[in-house]
Specification:
By secondary structure, the chain is α+β, with helices and mostly antiparallel strands. It contains one helix and two strands; from the N terminus they run H-E-E. It has one helix at residues 2-17, and strands at residues 43-48, 51-58. Mean pLDDT is 74; it is low at 1-7.
């Protein structure tokens, strides 16, 4: 019985004694852009009803045009 108990307790003590990963500091949130200012350039994978586009889409590709970003919660997933 003692051997069985030791076999269960030893791994637990090893996990508790092992140093864990250092705590990560949360990243500071980026400042929100003011209303009316130009949006920063970013890149996303574009999609159509036929699938994902081969080349990424840059916001700067649409400079001078109206851009609407639509996010769909479970689009293109099995969920």
């Amino acid at each position: 019985m003692k051997r069985f108990t030791f076999a269960l307790v030893a791994p637990l003590l090893t996990m508790l004694a092992a140093p864990g990963a250092p705590a990560q500091q949360p990243a500071a949130p980026a400042p929100e852009p003011a209303v009316g200012t130009e949006a920063p350039d970013f890149t996303l994978l574009g999609a159509t009803r036929y699938g994902v586009l081969k080349l990424p889409v840059h916001l700067s590709d649409f400079k001078g045009k109206t851009v609407v970003l639509a996010f769909f919660y479970k689009a293109r997933t099995k969920g």
